[in-house]
Amino acid sequence: MENNREFPDLLRLIDERSTAFRAAVASAPSLDVQVPTCPEWTLLDLVQHLGGGDRFWAAIVGPGPADAPPAEAAAARAAVAAPREREALVAWSAESTQLLLSALREAGPDHGCWTWWGRSQSPQDSGGVARHRVQETAVHTYDDQRLAAQARRLRLPRRRGPLLVRHGRRQWRTAHPSAHNRYGRGPGHGRRLCPGHGQ
User: Fold this and answer.
1) How far apart are CA 42 and CA 31, in angstroms?
2) Relative to the CA of 129, which of 97, 113, 118, 192 has its CA 20 to 30 Å away?
């Protein structure tokens, strides 16, 4: 099954992008600075969103198939409160990533679970969750790096890893088939995801 072959790559990408995300947080001028690509959020909000999402999905993949998020996952989302001190915040983010990766490794690639995308071509299992979290983490790492680059007047490299792009296209087409049909081409399809685009 293709998911089995890709699963280790997905976990590696989550880990790599999360590490890059934290490096940008550590170098940002302030946790209260506005995120250019998510204008209603500060950097602290962005870190809490990504880390809270990691914790939310970590609590989802274990219990198995369900019609709604498990109570533990809903409680984890409601209780999210990231530290406001930078060093503690970065450590909290790292812990959030490890909670997600540990849950995914324990579940394996084909473990069924609840997903917000419901019945679609994208599987409702831990492999589908891993692919979704790769995209979520990559998008917000870009947000974070762009903020840091803007503060230092740097230009971000335009290279994109082919594996990441491939997963991104597949996630969009399979989890959002109607949106792909409507918005897949033309101006405006490039990027506008924040805030409130799902965990």
Assistant:
1) 7
2) 192
